[in-house]
Amino acid sequence: MNEIDQVAFIARTDRSAAFDALVVGSYEHVWRFCAALVDRQSADDLAQETYYRCIRALPRFRGDSSARTWLLSIARHVCADELRSRSRFRRADLDDIESTGAPVTPDIADEIAISDLLAKLDANRREAFLLTQIVRLSYGEAASICGCPVGTIKSRVARAREDLITMLCATDGPAVDRTPVILRC
């Protein structure tokens, strides 16, 4: 049992120092996952909401999976709720932009470009890709978080890679090709 798992079990009954240690030991993973699924600007709030829900759910933590996997599963639900909430207002925002005639200028920063590409992926493929390639979880841990078989995660990651390559090859890139070598056409 790793340190975060041990702290989670202690925090089930003693929520003071043990819970603080749980947050400190897992915050970076939770924040990065939220930032990747939604956006960096919202990651702090989403991570905070994850730990708020964690406090309420902690007495039910049984250790069937690692504490990190359990926390990322909570974060996944928090992010899904946020994205559902945003999708309700997205159409109204687009209508406002179109009515003002304000040009939408893309930022050429690599991080923004990658985020845009990831956002275009199917939600299941994006989630599997982020969990395994960005958060660096094993396929088994990702499968546990997503509630599906390991083979499904592997195929989603493979298809996400194919989709990303297709998107990169289809776009007219900048004058300087910054496409990672492994993804070039």
Task: Give a structural overview.
This protein is mostly helical and about 180 residues long. It folds into two domains: about 1-105, Rna Polymerase Sigma Factor, Chain: A (Orthogonal Bundle), CATH 1.10.1740.10; about 105-185, Winged helix-like DNA-binding domain superfamily/Winged helix DNA-binding domain (Arc Repressor Mutant, subunit A, Orthogonal Bundle). Helices cover about 70% and strands about 0% of the residues. The protein is built from eight helices and no strands. The protein has helices at about 5-10, 15-35, 40-55, 65-100, 110-120, 125-135, 140-145, 150-170. The longest helix is centred in the middle third of the chain and has 34 residues, at about 65-100. The radius of gyration is 19 Å and the shape is globular. The termini are far apart. About 25% of the residues are buried. Residues about 105-110 and about 180-185 have low confidence and may be disordered.
Roughly how many Å apart are the termini?
A: 44 Å
Low-confidence segments: 103-108, 181-185
Percent strand equals: under 5%
CATH class assignment of the largest domain: Mainly Alpha
Number-wise, the strands total: 0
Q: Helix proportion of residues, in percent? A: over 70%
What is the approximate shape?
Answer: globular
CATH architectural category of the largest domain = Orthogonal Bundle
CATH fold annotation of the largest domain: Rna Polymerase Sigma Factor, Chain: A
Secondary structural class: mainly alpha
Mean pLDDT metric: 80
Oligomer: single chain
Largest beta-sheet details = none
Number of discrete helical segments? 8
